[in-house]
Amino acid sequence: MSKILIVAEHLDGKLNSSTARCVSAALAIKPEAIEVLVLAADAASVAAEAAQIEGVGKVLTVNRAENAHALAAVLAPQIAAVAGKGYSHVFAPSTTFGKDLMPRVAALLGVAQVSDVMSVESAHVFKRPIYAGNAIVTVEAPASSIVAATIRTASWPAAANGSSNASVEAAGVEVGLPSHTRFVELAQGKSDRPDLQGASKVISGGRALASSENFEIIYKLADKIGAAVGASRAAVDAGYVPSDLQVGQTGKIIAPELYVAIGISGAIQHLTGIKDAGTIVAINKDAEAPIFEIADIGLVGDLFKIVPELEAAL
């Protein structure tokens, strides 16, 4: 029977919703047990959150000062040590955190990683996107070794928080940690808007905004409906917004309930990042823009006239 270990992603003492999405993927395997591993300097609050996720049978904690910041070189040896204690699978979200971490874990376990799992066919057979999402490939991992995989969070709903109250235990991990990698600082933008990867509503702007000053109309509309703000790569490359707002193949893969693309033509790399969105709305003056091919609602016109009118109507 399968026994799955999920590496929790967290920041500032709060569990990221990507962990609950990994639990949904794990549940699709119908395993004997699902356990969550929390590595932190003080794992108590994150472990308590993880224990509430439906389907989780146990939460394991590793409290070490070296785990105060998520450094892949430091976390990987500890995860590999725990995963080697009878687990058939070890999962992490296919986010910046998981993409940085899991190749090291897989290498330490001596297995090939399965990346961006979007559906489960069986305990060792999965589907994942390739060629910027233009094709889906079926991959089979050897049944004789641990499966190390990242989960495409946009393809899975978050497992519910409910009456579940899994036990929390300390995991005994005695491994030497590398000293050549050290945390210096974390530079990140502060915003009262929802997190882009977890938001239910996202409004994105493209190169047609023409300047960072003009991007303010995107921010104002997003604030009106409590949405996160995103951008196309073209807008990021032009310097209108910071890179952490980029949506697409080389940015963030998201699946909000509502996605509004304003002044975005719809290059395939951008569409890859939003294909799992619920309702897609496009506003563009070019009626032939590729974005209209996938949009549920399309409006052809001048965004500088339409967006203020839309904000006023709201």
From TrEMBL:
Q: How is the cofactor bound?
A: Binds 1 FAD per dimer.
Top-level taxonomic group = Bacteria
Which terms does the record give in the GO molecular function aspect? electron transfer activity; flavin adenine dinucleotide binding
- Provide the cofactor list for this protein: FAD
Give the binding site residues for FAD: 207, 232-233, 246-250, 263-270, 284
PROSITE patterns the record matches:
ETF_ALPHA (PS00696)
Pfam families named among the record's database cross-references: ETF, ETF_alpha
The record ties this protein, via CDD domains, to: ETF_alpha (cd01715)
Please name the GO terms of the biological process aspect recorded for this protein, alphabetically.
fatty acid beta-oxidation using acyl-CoA dehydrogenase
* Family, similarity comment: Belongs to the ETF alpha-subunit/FixB family.
Provide the protein name.
Electron transfer flavoprotein subunit alpha
Q: Identify the species of origin.
A: Dokdonella immobilis
